[in-house]
User: What shape does this take?
Amino acid sequence: MPPINPYNKYIKQYQTSNITTATPEKLMILLFDGAIQFLQKAKTAIQENNLKERAENIDGARKIIRELMRTIDLENGNDVSKRLFRLYNQMIMNLVKANVTRKVENIDEVIADLLNIRWGFQKAIEIQSGIVTVEEVMKEQQAMDGQISHPALNEDNNAG
Assistant: This one.
């Protein structure tokens, strides 16, 4: 059993305060960060052949992705909403595969998707706050060599 960190109490208080005072936009970012942390832990558990930790962390990420899915207004949303919903659904399927096959590659794909979407949300928040302009974000995206290129976000993909 690892030694107990004497600062755990203060860390928990900070985390609770951070969540309870966060804006809805910041909560979305925290959800992405939480899912990514769960998946990093799941990858470690796979490498260490720790079945319990693998399953618990994959399930934690899956629950967060389900919560992200609940935030999408499919009834009043546009095509982007529907494509995002399909992408989240595909992530969950990849996590099921990862849990069964114990393949880190499935988890890596979900992490990459979450990072792409998180980046987009973060940039939307920055644009809305006036921190950056749309043009600056577009230049940054081009400098990063591309766009979010996932089949579930492709307009031509009607699967799902």
Summary: Residues 23-153 form a domain with the Four Helix Bundle (Hemerythrin (Met), subunit A) fold (CATH 1.20.120.340). Helices lie at 8-20, 24-47, 51-70, 79-101, 104-129, 134-143.
